Give the backbone structure.
Amino acid sequence: MEEFVVKKREEFGLAQGRGFLPKSDPLLRLSLQYEAWETLVAKLPTLLLADRVGEAVESLPQLSTAELLEDELDRAMMVLSYIAHAYVYETSPPRASIPAQVAVPWCAVADKLDRPPILAYASHSLSNWRRLDDSREVGLDNVARLVQFYGGMDEDWFVLVHVVIEQTAAPCVDAVLELQYAMDVGDADAVEAALVTIGEYLGKACEVLARMPTKCDPHIFFLRGRRFIFGWYNNPALPDGVVYEGAREKPVTDLRGETGAQSSLIPCLDLALGIHFEDDHLKHHVLTMREYAPREHRNFLDFLEKSRNVRQYLLDSPDLRARLAPPYNKCVELVGRFRRMHLEFAKLFIFERKHMEGTSGTHPHNVGTGGTPFLKYLSDHIGAVLDHKLPVS
C-alpha cells in the first residue's frame, strides 16, 4: 500500500500530512527584480485606506515574467491577484479595466500555472500563510496571513480558518489514496480503517469551521473583506466584465471570484465516497469550481472520478455492507454537516447583511462571490449528499 500511496502523492503534487496545502510552506518573497510588486502588495492596507491603489498600480513598471523561477509562480500569482482585485474594487462602482503593468504579467503567470487570471481560493488561502513558529504545526495558534486587502483580525481569520481546515483534514486525503488501494486488493480491514480516518479528521475540520464567527464579525467581513473577492461572472457591478489591457482582446466576463467551493477537499471526498450530483445546475457548479484549482489537484480529482468509489464497492459487496455501512454513513453525514455549516455561515455572513448592501451592488447579498445564487445551491447540495447513506442491514 505504501508504495502505491507514495507514487500517487508524487503524481498529484501532494505531500503526506499536507492535504491540498503546498508541499512546502509558501514562499515569503519574490526575487529582487520583482520588488515593485512586493512593495505595492505590502502597502495595500494603507493604500486602500488613502484611496491611492489606482495611483500606485498605474505607476508600476512593466515587468517581464521570464525571470520568475518555478517555485515563485504561486507567490507571483497571489501577489498579482491581490493587486488586481484591490485596483478593481477600490472604487465604487468598480474599475472595469486592469492596467497592462498588472494584466500582462498576471495572465502570463496564470497561463504558466494553467489557472484563470482571477483571485481564486488557491491564492487567497492555500498559498497565503506562514507559520509564526516554524518548529510547530500549522494551527490557528500558529499561522499568519502573507498578504491582505485592508487586513485586520476579521479578514485574516476568515482566510486562516480555511488554511487550518485544509491542514486538519489532510489525513483524509491520505486516507482516500489508501482507500483506493484497499478496494483494488479487496482488503476490507484497510477500507474500514480509511473510512474511520476520514470520519475522524473531517469531524475535526468541522470543529475548525465552527470557530469562524469567533474572530470574524459578519458585519465587518461583509463591508470590508467580501467586496474584494468577487470575480467578474454574474457580477451586477461589472455588467460588461473587465478589460485586461494588453493581455486579452475582449473584456472578460466569465471568471468567478474566490469561494471555498474551489477547495478540492470536499470534491475529493465526494468522489471517494461516491457522492454524485444529478446532471443539472449542481453538477455544473461543482465541475466549474474545479477549474480554479491548481492543475495537480484537478488531475487528482480526475483520477478519483475514473476510479472505483467506496459506495459502489459496498453495493457490490453485500457481505461487507453491514460492517462497513456505519463508518461510511458517518463520513457521508460529516460531508453533509460541513456543507450545512457552510450554508449557515453564508446566511449569517451574507444574506442577513442584505440591509447593508450598497446601491452600487458592489457586494450583493443574493449572489455568492463565485457568482451563484448560493442559498439554493448550498441547500440543494446538502439534501443530495444525505441521500447517499446506505442501509445498515
